[in-house]
Amino acid sequence: MEFVKLKICEQIAYITLNRSKVYNAINSEMVNQFSSCIEKIANNSTVRVVITRGEGGNLSAGSDLKQIANLSFNEAGLIEKLHADVFRSLDKIRPITIAVLEGYTLGGGLGLSLYHDFRIATQNAIIGLPEVELGWTPPWALGRLVDIVGFSKARWLTLSSSKISGVEAEKIGLVDIISSDKDIDENIDNIANRFAGLSMEAIVATKQFFHQMSEGNKSKEWDDLAQKKFENCFSDESHIHNILKKYRS
């Protein structure tokens, strides 16, 4: 099953999450296929821009709870660590990376977008981190969230489990550009073509410079710590049992 599609058109690569029936919920097979796409892009010297979006009008509703519901806390922690390692590898590729936040962009879907250089959202996108409401800490990308929106807004988004629109996300700096649903494809093409015309040497040097300046260069440290906090919460069946039992086979 093709859970992630890759299409390369000259200097622009399009990655599409392809589990639309489950709102592009992220499971291990999807992550493995995403990793293969990143490797192919890294080995293609002509690609200057990467666009990541989801099939069916949603980026992703987050981790596939049907997968992790039947796992021990150690197993669930290892799965989430793998997801973090793969998505964080977006930092290592040369092209500019852009995530498209539309429809449901929740939990791991939002986390994935945070590892991109830029985020474009539709006005009515539904964006948030529901993990604390479910009973556990988001297992990765919190360091990157802080780097992008600051501690205060990151705390609010995480602890309140609030869902915000694309318009609200732009106001707090979580997304860089907002678009109407009808104009999103045109806006993506315009932005991608603009970046595709830039010098690759200048892109790489500038990305490296900002990455070295940023708190994001500690992403792995923060992801490892978040994974441990996630495992601690997930090991306590008393407060997550009612949430997970409907997903257990």
Provide structural commentary.
Helix 1 runs parallel beside helix 3, helix 3 packs antiparallel against helix 11 and helix 6 packs across helix 7. The strands form two sheets. Strands 1-2-3-4-6-9 form a six-stranded mixed β-sheet, sandwiched between helices. Strands 5-7-8 form a three-stranded mixed β-sheet. 49% of the residues lie in helices and 16% in strands. It has one domain: Alpha-Beta Complex (2-enoyl-CoA Hydratase, Chain A, domain 1), CATH 3.90.226. The two termini are 21 Å apart. The protein is built from twelve helices and nine strands. The protein is α/β, with parallel strands linked by helices and 249 residues long. The mean pLDDT is 93.
Give short descriptive properties of this protein.
249 residues, alpha/beta, 2-enoyl-CoA Hydratase, Chain A, domain 1, six-stranded mixed beta sheet, three-stranded mixed beta sheet, 12 helices, 9 strands
Short description:
With 249 residues, this protein is an alpha/beta fold. The chain has twelve helices and nine strands.
Strand order of the largest sheet: 1-2-3-4-6-9
Question: What's the CATH superfamily, by name?
Answer: 2-enoyl-CoA Hydratase, Chain A, domain 1
| Span between termini | 21 Å
- Summed over residues and divided by their number, the pLDDT gives a mean of 93
Shape type? globular
Pattern of helices and strands: EEHEHHEEHEEHHHEHEHHHH
CATH class: Alpha Beta
Number of domains: 1
The gyration radius over C-alpha positions equals: 17 Å
Low-confidence stretches: none
Number of helices: 12
Per CATH, which architecture? Alpha-Beta Complex
In the CATH hierarchy, the third-tier topology is known as: 2-enoyl-CoA Hydratase, Chain A, domain 1
